[in-house]
Amino acid sequence: MDILTLFIIVPVLTIIALVFSKGLERTRVVSMIGSIIQLGMAINLVFAYFKERAVNDGIMVFTKDVVWFKNFNIHYNIGVDGISVALILLTAIVVLAGVFISWKTSELPKEFFISLIVLSVGVYGVFISIDLFTLFVFFEIAVIPMYLLIGIWGSGPREYSAMKLTIMLMAASAVLLVGILGIYFNSNADGGPLTFNILDIAQVNIPEAAQKLFFPLVFIGFAVISALFPFHTWSPDGHASAPTAVSMLHAGVLMKLGGYGVFRVAMYLLPLGAIHWSWFFIILAATGVVYGAFSAIRQTDLKYINAYASVSHLGLVLFALLTLNKIAWNGAIIQSLSHGLLTAMFFALIGMIYGRTHTRDITKLGGMMKILPFIGAIYVITGLAYLGLPGFSGFVAEMNIFVGAFQQNPDTFHRVLTVLVVSSIVVTSVYILRLVGKIMMGPLITNDVQDLPRATWYEKTGILLLMIPVIGIGVAPLWLSDMIMKSLEPFIQGVL
Amino acid sequence: MNFSSFLLMRQEMILLTIILLLLVAEISLPKAKKQSIVHLAIFLFGINTIVGFFAIETSSWFGGMFHTNGLIHFFKNVLNVGVFILLLQSADWLQEKIVDNNKGTEFFILLFSSLLGMYFMISAGDFLMFYLGLELSTLPVAALAAFEVTKRISSEAGIKFILSAALASGVSLFGISMLYATSGSIYFDDIITMIASTNLTLLGFILFFAGLAFKISLVPFHFWTADVYEGAPISVASYLSVISKGAAVFILMILLFTVFKNLMHVWENIIYVVALATMFIGNLFALRQQNMKRFLAFSSIAQAGFILLGLMTGNQLGTATIIYFVMIYVFSNLAAFGVVQAISLKTGKENMNDYEGLYRTNPNLSLVMMLALFSLAGIPPVAGFFGKFFLFTAAASKGYYLLVFLAVVNVTISLYYYLLVVRAMFLRTSDQAIPYFKNKLYMKLGLLVTVIGILVLGLYSPLYDYIFELSKHLN
Description:
The complex is a heterodimer of chains A (496) and B (475).
Chain A: H1 6-19, H2 23-55, E1 61-69, E2 74-80, H3 82-101, H4 109-128, H5 132-143, H6 145-153, H7 158-185, H8 198-203, H9 208-223, H10 234-241, H11 244-254, H12 256-269, H13 271-298, H14 302-322, H15 326-357, H16 368-371, H17 373-386, H18 393-408, H19 412-441, H20 457-475, H21 478-495
Chain B: H1 3-8, H2 10-28, H3 36-52, E1 59-61, E2 66-68, H4 70-98, H5 104-123, H6 127-145, H7 152-183, H8 188-194, H9 199-216, H10 223-231, H11 234-257, H12 264-286, H13 292-311, H14 316-347, H15 358-361, H16 363-377, H17 383-397, H18 401-427, H19 441-459, H20 462-470
Antiparallel strand pairs in B: 1-2
């Protein structure tokens, strides 16, 4: 069994084991063991990747190619480059942290963990796919469990949020399907066979008219899941209603599929389309950044704040990708990772606070630092990392993005947009610091919350799992930049 | 005419024998043992299904009126498997409600006669045989729809069906007569060479198409569907939506791709419009349905619209994709109808509200239903996704991107109402949830087979390759 297919096999085996395990205790232990194995495999993959990279010069390594539907030239074709390896590692970390955070799930625990792991299968699958069809299959597999996860275990208007999220994301993937078919039927433009293979299609000169036609479809198809303005409305509702672990996984990992897909499929395969359309989508992305940040200021629900912050930060990823230069690209990918970890951490902390105080309303919260010191301290650190304090991952990412966007695009249009987007950092500081000041440092609002339970071992483990890489990226970003930069080469040749 | 030529018709022969055997059994069995008719019928039909899997050679008999080839044979197998699952799912209903009224044998004989009609219809080599098959397949269904005579709604369904079916086949026959008038022959092979796009031919084609469109319940010939499905016994509704529709799609495809090949520039426009109308009307009407049978009726109208996308190609790819999709559709829809059947039989409840909280009380049935609906909606990794994806690929291969786009819009609409059922079963809890009940062996088997089909048919790619190979018979 090759090292990548294991990322499908192990979760599937975990699911089978879960089906046969009875009771909450066994269920969560089985899920934990399964997720620990996944994390182990992901860490192993990073080392194996560096070792393999030294001897293998291909765009993708650990490739494996099995014909699936031969009449359509559909293959089960997998492989990874540095970008996918980093995102796989992120996924494994967030999934394990999510399992720890959901330790106390009491309602239908078996079904909960199964859905969670189905989701992770989809995400891993997207990151390892080289074949567009396989990628699309996994993409949809990742979306559909969200309906059950939010609908069954969610809170508030969960049925509405779950339906809205699922329908919007599936509508986007329906649009994406048309785009993928468009790419497929133009993949023989140079006289070769029709193919779904991303690496092969990248070598083909797809006619410019087709690229201009299909780029928006593919781009929107992927970008909706990254909460591209104005298609972001599913995200705040979905996040607010979702249970903690699902918000973590969703904002942390699932929304990264959008940026990844935009980069790997839309921009890589349709470079002329990307150049033609970038001005339009970059305006949308920049609007999303600013709009998300300002919306976050006005919210009083902790989860809504974080959801709009995600709209803003993922808008930044799309913005960076669309500036079409490699420094910003590098920043975009680090931003994906950094945001994934930080937002997962935020949602975990909000879940913990909510689990204890039963409110997410910031007007009703205050003085958390005094009664919940561990959670409070981590919250402050996360907040600072989120607004881009040096020493944490957020800084590395944003620095790269802004330097790239400003330096490499010397025309007025891009510079004005960049300045606008940079200003959102200030807004971010406003809502983060206000939050920290109010609910952490502020005065205690009521006295009947004095004896809230402290953070438990599983919560601490979950948080630490996310914390370590955040600081790791912030303090020593070079190994990551190195891994990503090398993998950007084919994109630079193909697109720029 | 010798013995080996009869072997080429062995499926028809065996089915006819089964019908006669059941008749004998009905006469000879004492009343106390009538229940065993159900076992006998399932057993005999099981044999027929298994025998069907032995290969048959390409040939043509009765001066070209009847012909077989690998593709037709394969499709007969699909129909056989579908009917077999249907029998398994109906067994409990028959034993509990029908046999005691001395009507068990009738049910099987009518059902098998109708199936026999479909065999002849899809094997037809000329319009006469086609028309006889069409009638033989339709008339027994009218009797079946009115099978629960004590229920008013069932009789109403029977009447509605027979009237609209009679009209449709009359119109169809009128169309055939015009085609005969212009080409001078009723044999498909002759018409292929003779056909020209004169006005009379086109009129003939359109009238003929209307007759078949009725059977497939394409918009605007769909009005009978929901009422008949709602009134008819669930087994019959299931039969109409799966087997009858599948066979009609198959023969429509054969005729369009061979006999009317030269008129492609005409019928592709018709199919384009009809496909869009069918998808949109089916989906939009399904949104508001509360009764599960009506719900599935509109869902199956919409599915027929998707199938038409494959027709737009007129080539081997389209043929293979349509057959593949119909096969998957047979399994998915039978699974959905099977669950509705099981619940209706135990509790008499058929509304979507009644399904609230079903997962907490009957998890297995809910899971089967969810898989079936996901397959109908086209969510990977279940089979329906592959079927739909390939249909869209087939349509896109001819450059119909706009049509594909509108079709995926419809997929999203359909996802909404399929999720409504999932919502009722999984998201809601209810005090009046249907209590836990155990299904009998036949029903369990019937559902198990469909679930295996839904899970395996899509992922197991050699099957598609096999169908693709077979499809060269047609093109």
